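Here is an idea for our session: we take a single protein and study its fold together. Once you have written the record down, we can walk along the chain together.
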Amino acid sequence: MSIFDKLIHQKDTYDREALEMLGSFIQQLDSKSGKSDPDKASRDMKYVRALQRTRLTAKNAAIHVSYEMTPQSFNFVNWKLDTDNQYKVRIPFYELDTQTVFFVNNKKRKTIKERQRIFAYVVWLISQRTQASCNCPNCGAVSTVEELLSGCPFCGTKFLMADLYPKISSFYTQKELDIDKHVKRDVAIVTILIAAAVFFFNFNDYMAVFNGTYTASDPTTMLLSLPITVGTGFVVGIMTANLAIAFRVFGKAISTSGLQRRTIRAGRILPGFIKKYEPSFSLDYFITKLVYLAQVMIYSDTYENCALYAGGPITNQCRNIIDARYRGFIDAHNCYEKNGFLYVDMSISMNNVYLNGSSVKRKNETFRMLLRKSATAEIDYGFSIHSINCRSCGGSFDATKEKHCPFCGSDYSIDSYDWVVMDFKKKY
């Protein structure tokens, strides 16, 4: 039994399956698995990862990630939704040790070791039956769902299914303070320093004992002083390490207090506004959507053909970012309804890795985003930009590749279904 299996103790069937899926997902995210994408990754997630791989290839760079479960690792189901008749949703997370290595021109340039929490959005479609019979929305002919995936055998209209369920629609990571690492390091440093100080202070006496010229009555006492000193250093080291951890935790709390306060405020503002239009609104789900949109904007080289961007011309400020991760902080500046659309003015804090030439540097940054969605669009946990259903003919197509329905030519707008980005810029 793997350590992933040993960590799963939830009684709820969906909780348990969500944690098992995330465990397998993490193992397949590991570069040693040899997989480009985990099996249960949604098409939207694969789209973001493909954009990042394109960026890395263009810069002749690569990222190798490894994950390690330790006895101190743990997991939990952070949020669940069972009220929807069509979907069941879980947001599990694992806390584990990670190592990320950045290569440029096949040379190792930077290694980051840290403890992270990995959150995933796991979705089940309750009614999905791929062998069930259904009518083609275009011509009415009867086929199975599985047959329609490759196109109606009678009229040729394609009806893409976003994913086979259950799936992990998105994930994000948050850096955690690795207390164990700090304790071990601080204890070792203090123990060595104290032992070394005592040894050098009594160096002449120790040399006299070894040379047989020590004149004190009991040289054994002198010899025993060294292990006693090591033991004392160990105890003092533990006390010092605990004090240092307290200062680190306090310092981190102080340094991020503004971000945390604004995140808490956003957690009040967003549900208060959006639940008037979406009674089943989930802040956790919205954050995964926000992270997804931010990563699409960061990894896209141009925005003019980006289906998720509906604003005016803007300059891409992110061309040198090769890795972008959510830091766990957001802010809601303004929320309003105008002409039948919901607008949310947000900030999201990201931890980005820049590649300039052969130099790899990490930087915390905040991005300002204006999002828009139709006020009548109901939340759809299975929505995918890769499977847009035309409201004129019923055909399905990949909106990342088509600007109009390829079957009937009708225009479409993503914000009739889900959130799109109207503005995106760095905050300085």
